[in-house]
Specification:
5 helices
Length: 125
C-alpha cells in the first residue's frame, strides 16, 4: 500500500476508534456500566481487578483495546509489513484517535459554555 493511502487510512480508521472509545467512557447510554466499573476499580482487592475495570472509564486506555480490535478486523499496517507495521499502526491510531477525542471535548465544552451564556441572557430578559 502506498504511503499516502496508509496515511488516509490512519486518519479514517481513527474516527471509529475515537467514537467507540468516547461513547463507552463518556456518554449517557453507557452510564450505568461505567459507574459499576468506577466502583469496582476503586473497591477491587486485586491490582488486576482495579486495572481491568479502570480501562472502561478512561478514553485513552480504552482506545488501545478498541485499536487492537480494529487492527484485527482490518489488518491495517503502517510503514512496515508484519508485526512492526501493526505496532506502528496501533500507536499511531491511538494517538490520532485521542487527538480527535480531545478536539471533540473542546468543542463540546465550548458549546456548553455558549448554551449556558444564552440561557443566562434569556433569564435576564
Amino acid at each position: 500500500m502506498e504511503l499516502s493511502t496508509q496515511i488516509v487510512w490512519l486518519f479514517i480508521l481513527a474516527i471509529p476508534i475515537a467514537c467507540i472509545a468516547w461513547t463507552v467512557t463518556h456518554e449517557e447510554v453507557f452510564r450505568e456500566p461505567r459507574e459499576y466499573c468506577v466502583k469496582r476499580c476503586h473497591e477491587s482487592k486485586s491490582l488486576a481487578g482495579r486495572k481491568f475495570f479502570y480501562l472502561f472509564t478512561c478514553e485513552y486506555c480504552f482506545s488501545h483495546y478498541v485499536t487492537v480490535i480494529m487492527l484485527l478486523i482490518t489488518g491495517y499496517q503502517l510503514l512496515y509489513t508484519g508485526w512492526r507495521g501493526y505496532i506502528i499502526a496501533g500507536f499511531s491510531l491511538v494517538f490520532i484517535a485521542n487527538v480527535y477525542m480531545s478536539l471533540f471535548a473542546l468543542i463540546r465544552t465550548d458549546l456548553k459554555k455558549v448554551r449556558l451564556e444564552a440561557e443566562k441572557e434569556e433569564e435576564k430578559k
